[in-house]
Each structure stands twice: as C-alpha cells, then as structure tokens.
Amino acid sequence: MDMKKNKDTMDLLSEISGMAGEEPELLSARTDEAYVRLSEAGFERAALALAEKKFSLIGLFCAEAFEKESGFTLFYAFKKAGRAHVLVLVREAGRAAGREGKAAHGAVSSVAEIFPSASWFEREVRDGFGLEFSGAFDTRRLFLHECYPEGFHPLQKTFKNGPISLRKPEAGKNPEEYRFRETKGEGVYQVAVGPVHAGIIEPGHFRFNVIGEPIFSLEIRLFYKHRGIEKLAEGKSPLECVPLAEAVSGDESAANAVGFCTAVERASGIAVPERAECLRAVLLELERVYSLLGDLAGMAVDVGFSLVASPFFILREEVFRQNEKLTGSRFLRGIMVPGGLKKDISGPALEELPPFLAKFSRTFESAFERAMSSSSLIDRFATTGVVKKELVAPLNLTGPLAKASGCPADTRLDRPYGAYRRLSPEPSVKKGGDVLSRFEVKADEIRASVKLIKRLLEEMPSGPVFAENGPAAGEEARSDVRPGYSGPSGYSIALVESPRGQNLHWVYLKNGRIDRYKVRTASFCNWQAIEHAVLGNIVPDFPVINKSLNMSYAGTDL
Amino acid sequence: MNTSFLLFALLNPAFALLAAPLYMALIRKVKAYAQGRKGPKLFQVYYDLRKLMHKEAVYSPTSSWVMRLTPCLNLTALLACSLFVPLIFVPEPAGGFGNVIVFLYLLALERFFTALSGLDAGSAFGGMGSSRSMSLAAVIEPTMVVAFAALAFVLKSLNLHEMFALTAGSLLPASPTLVLVSISLFIILIVETGRLPVDNPATHLELTMINEAMILEQTGKNLALLELAHAIKQLLLMGVLINTILPIGLSAEADAGKIAVSALLFLLKAGVLAVVIGLFESALAKMRLFRLPAFYMMAFFFSALTILIEVFA
C-alpha cells in the first residue's frame, strides 16, 4: 500500500503518540485511513484518550493470517464525527482456543467499558474466531446461538464451509445457555415477544421488564438469520462477491454494493470514471428515498393511521418502478461492479427521472403536510422514544437516528466518496430525539435526496462507466470468475451512508481474491439505541419507536 | 307473550346474525377506499367465517373450560341482546325483554368472559389484552350506564322497546337532547367494538392490541363464533344509535310489508353509519393508551349534560 504521509496523517500520528505515550508504528496509510500498531500498554492508554476525545469505535474486527503466516490480528477502527480520517489500531491477538475448546491463548483485554459499542463487536469476534476478551462485562454468545456446538468458530481458516451438526438446546443443562437480565420486585413482570411475530417482519426477540404498562428495561436478542456471508466471501473474486454484499440487507442493497466495490477499488487502486460515480450516487439516493418512504409509511401504520401511510406506500412503489426502468431491478441489484457499473444506464430512462421527481415532490409534500397537520399523529409521535444525544458517540449511532438527536454527522459530508466529493446533500438535523424528530429528519432526507438527484442529473458527465484498470476490464470481464484468476493484494476500509446510517466495509485482498470481508451495517450499532429509547415509555408505544428507528435484522446478522 | 313479540323473537336475531358481518366488511371497504385501495369483497367476511367454521379448534395446553365455553357463551349473550334492540320493528312489550339494565349486564358478561379467556391461554399477549380491557372497562362501563340513563331520562322508560316505540316512525329525534346522547352512543359504539382511535382492528402488532389480543389464541370455529358475536355487538350498538337519532321508517306494527320496508331502511341507514365509522377511523391515529379515558369522558360529559338539561329544563 502506498504510504501517502500527508499532513493529516502526520498530525494524527503525533496525536496518537501523545495519547499512547510512545512512538506508534505506522503500518500503512492513505489520505483518510491509517493503520497504526502500538504496544499493549500504549493501546490501553490510547483507547482511554480516544474515548475522552469523543472518538467513536466504529468497527472492531478480526482477521486470521493477516500479512503473516498464522495468528489473529484485531483491528479497532476509530473515527470522530465531522472528521474524514479513520484511525485503525492494529492489535495482535495470538492464537485462539482450538476446536477442542481449550482456553484461549493470550486473551486480550476488553475495551467494552471504555467504548460501549465494543461489547457486541467483541462478542462477535469471540463467536467467529474463538478469541476471548478478558474483563468483558458480557461474555454471552452473540450470533452463534446455543444450538451451535461448543468450540465452533466458523471464521477460523481451519473451518471449511459445510454442514455441521447442531445440538438441541436443553433448558438448564447447557453451560452456554443465554441468560436474560433478571429483575425482581413487586408488580414486575416480563413480557417475551418474538422471535416470530404476527406480521411479515424479520425475527428478533424482545424481553421487556414492565410494571403495568411502563417499560423499565428491555433486552433485545437478535441473530436468528445467520447466513455466514463473511465466510462465503472468503476465496471469492471481487466480482463474485458483489451479490453477497447486496444480500446483506434488502433495502440497503445499492449502499452495500457500493461500499464493497469502493473498498475493493481503494485496496487495488482502481479509479472509477466520473459518470459511473454520478450514476452510482443517483442510485444510492433513489435507494435512500424508497427506504425512508417505507419508514414514514410504517410509522404511520404503527399508530393505526393508514390514511397518512398510504400515499407514502404509493410513492415508494413508484420509485421501485423507476428503479426497475433504470437498472432492471426494483432493489437496484446487479448493476454495481468493482470499477464502475456493469452497464451504462440508457438515456431515455434517465430523462424520465426529472419529470418523475417533480411530480414526486408535489405528492410527497402534500402527503407530508397531511401527516403533520394531524394532531392525533403528532400527539403519538412527540416525546415518544427519546434517544439522548449523549448516547450517539459511545454507541456509534449514525444516520437519521443520530441526526434526529442533534448530531448532524453524515458520511457523505464527513468523508465524501464518489460523486459526493463534488455534490453534497443538504444536512438536516433536529434536536428532539423523539419519534417526531425522526419522522421529520427522514422527510428532510428524502427532500435532500430528491434535490441531489436532480443536480446529479443536470451535471451528469458522459464517458465510460467502467475503469480501464478495473478487475474485470474489457471482454475478459467475466474472466475473474474463473478459478485461476489472480490480482493485486491490499486492504482498505470504505464507509458509505446507507439509508440507515454509516456502513463499514473492510476488504482484505490476497492476490486478487477476498481473504477477509467484514461488513458492519449501521443497524449493528443502532440496535443498541432501542434499549435506551424505550425506557419509561409504555408497551403499546414500542412498535412505533421500533419502526422509527427501523433497524435491519439481516444487516446486523451476517 | 304476544304474537308480535314471538315474530320479533324469530326475525330480529336472525336479521342481526345475517346482516352483522356485512357491516364489518363495509367499514373495511370504506377504509380501503380512503387509502386508495380496493379492499376485499363485501362477502369475503362470510367466506372467512365459513372457512373458520370448517377448521378445528386448537387449544393451548394450559387452557381450561373457560377457553372452550367463551365463544358459545359470547354468541349466546349477544343473540340474547338482539332481543333487546329492535332493528326491523318494535314489538309490543313482553316481560323484561328490552330492559336496559339487563342489556348492559349481558354486554358486561360478554366482556368478562372474553377477558377471562384471554388470560386462560397463558400467553403474554392475552393477559396484556385482558388487563388493558378491564382497566378501560372501569371507565367505559360507568359512562355507558350514564349514557343509557340519559336515554331513559329523555324517553321516559327503562325499556328499550318502549323507548323506541316512542321514537319509531318519526323523521326527527323525539327530543333535541337526543342529539347529545347520540354523540355519547357513537363514542360507546367505537369503544365497545374496539375501533380507532381506541384500538386498531387491522393491526398485526400484538403489543398494541386490546380486543384482538384477548382472542389471539382462539382458533377455528371458536374464532368464527367470537367474530360473529363481535359483529352482532357492533350491529346492535349501531341499531341503538340509529333508532335514537334517525328513527325514520322504523315500524311499530308487526305487518309484513311494513317490516320489509323497515328492514330495508335499516340496512340503508346502517350502511350510511358504517361509512361514517369507516371515515372516522381513517381520519385519526390511535390514541395513546393512557389518554383513552379522556376520550370516554367526552361520552360521559354529553350524557351527563343531557340529564342535567332534562332535570332542569
């Protein structure tokens, strides 16, 4: 990787050396991404100092045999809202517990007490790689439920994909049985909801502790839809891997595909042509529009106000139809490839967009007006499900959720990628943190997206849509699917702003093949907010709070 | 017993039984149109009931006889109620039939057993629904008593048959205060049938349910009986409201031709009311659970006002 030691990187390095009290070892750097190794003591000092300086832990992931023969390497990605730079602290973790379940060799210390967002990350690493974190306050299993056998860690390289025998969970007999927080007291009772729900919704278990109707604690348990996406990606060529990225979460397909492609392009030094970047941005914004329209409609449905919901549903369907005309896919799948777009989007389909958007805006405004002029709707939304601003940085909350709580962070503005380097969306921010603020922020985001699409279309450059040095250039395009394919090595982080917030994609290429692919969607972090948002609210208000946050279950559980 | 009442006892419950599901469907249709959808066919409700009647009932292992008895008991209670509210013609008074207090207690019996059966299955949602329903009942039941007391005050009788014999056939309500009582009756109709803004009959969100939560564990023919009972309850309360505010065409004689005209007019008036309910439901979001007593208080207020006017005017 090229070592562009620009001024920002040098500043960051001196900052780190001040925090850690030692000279850091710079592994590699790009203009907005630096990999730094510290001693164990230095790491712990730096972690404390980073937390103090309001950095968020945006990702913590592990890779086996990273730039060496064997052993595990941990990556702690830090970012501060408003700054483009991602600082990755690299930490060697030695060897993990074997399949026989022996104690881990050289457990590393947990940072979950300093960065609350680390708790799920560490449990995820523990399940996937068998690494133990000493001093962690929560060591329960995360994505591998108790039905998976002991000592089973699918992301270790020794595990080859194939059928495994699951064990039957027996209550009380399993040492790794999942225990929910227990509460005692007069009039306290638990309400268990899910994982199977009455509607067509994804599975998730919610354990409420209530006194009458008011909720005083909620614990969520997800990860009922593990598909092994990260494992499936291993050994694939980048082109083969795009459909996997698209499958992470249905209504973030384009965002995740762009995130993955951007990471690959950065890692292997591919420059995407301008037209492809602009078209990608158009598709990303269309995705944001339809996704957020679904949220607005869903929030109205959850308070029983279908008259307000239906125009949003209708508009969403219309956007889907435009998507299909543009790309052949209602969910914008199958068009993104590393290096640009699989094919150019035809002129007529693009020319249809501006008149469509003009009509869209008119209908949208009248539908929004109808919603906001209903006192019964406002009464349900205002003051319900407040997410406090103080939670945003420690839990790494992003997207409309954070914007509605007074934090205007947006990856498109902080760390612009693709066409957002030239054109940026209008920021929107509300201070309330309640369901109403999220409703308004999501409507603002839709308006901003529509404006941005119009500007992108006006300034749409012409030219190729595929990089000359792309991994699949020319007619041999599909050649990288063939078994003997090899290409460049490298690794990089890409952050994209999906409709739900900041998605992190990290790709490690070895000879052009994916050695490790890590996705962390906004939902993974945002889910933590719901346990705080419901406190003091009543049980019947939970559905609308949940819908206003609208996290993806699939995007959390790879 | 007189022949007029015997005829009534045959025709009125049969009419209620057959016509009740239609208005469930009509309200659903109106709501669908308001949202720009077509909605299911009007007769879909009948097909669904037939389908459910052919399905077996499944019981939770923790359930007792309450779960098995409730569906039959509720339908019986509501069919008994249908002897109290004249829909197609007003019979000559017979015994205690039509007594307002018995009518209210029959409704309370139905509510009580629905709540019990909600608890009986041992699921979290049933218990939640029962607890909500009972705490709200503590507010709506006195309100209902006051509303019917106001009705009795204005129409000078405790017997629904006698009350409506007085209003039958006239174009306008017998007394202007009846308009006030009608507002109360409309709110009671909305509350008792679990419609928006009190409860959302179309929701799939268990956590927000009140009425639906209690019958969540009911299956097959038991569910069909409960839904039928619910539909009849709605039709009867609609009947009380219609006979109060718009009694035109209601026959007080047991004459075949007049009964036919009266029944046809009732179908029409109930249709209009169903449209009004459908639009009312569309125009509001569901209220917060703890704000509901305020909504009930409106019904209480209008009824109490009527009584005051009647006493002092």
Give the amount of beta strand of chain A, in percent.
Answer: 15-25%
Task: Determine the structural class of chain B based on helices, strands and strand pairing.
Answer: mainly alpha
Shape of chain B: globular
The main sheet of chain A orders its strands as 1-2-5-4-3
Quote the CATH topology of the largest domain in chain A. Cytochrome-c3 Hydrogenase, chain B
The residue ranges of chain A in which pLDDT falls below 50 over 5 or more consecutive positions are 96-104, 473-482
Query: Greatest chain-chain interface?
Result: A-B, 30 and 28 residues
Roughly how many Å apart are the termini of chain B?
38 Å
Oligomer: heterodimer
Number of strands of chain B: 0
- Radius of gyration from the alpha-carbon trace of chain B, in angstroms: 19 Å
For the sheet with most strands of chain B, the description reads: none
Helix content of chain A: 25-40%
Number of domains of chain A: 3
Q: Count of helices of chain A?
A: 16
Secondary structure category of chain A: alpha+beta
Secondary-structure blueprint:
The complex is a heterodimer of chains A (558) and B (313).
Chain A: H1 7-20, E1 25-30, E2 33-37, H2 40-52, E3 56-64, E4 72-79, E5 86-94, E6 108-109, H3 118-129, E7 133-134, E8 188-193, E9 205-211, E10 215-221, H4 229-233, H5 238-246, H6 253-268, H7 274-302, H8 306-327, E11 336-337, E12 340-341, H9 347-372, H10 375-381, H11 392-395, H12 400-403, H13 411-414, H14 435-458, E13 490-498, E14 501-510, E15 513-520, H15 522-533, H16 542-549
Parallel strand pairs in A: 2-5, 6-7
Antiparallel strand pairs in A: 1-2, 3-4, 4-5, 8-9, 9-10, 11-12, 13-14, 14-15
Chain B: H1 3-34, H2 44-53, H3 65-81, H4 100-120, H5 124-155, H6 160-167, H7 177-192, H8 211-214, H9 220-245, H10 256-282, H11 292-312
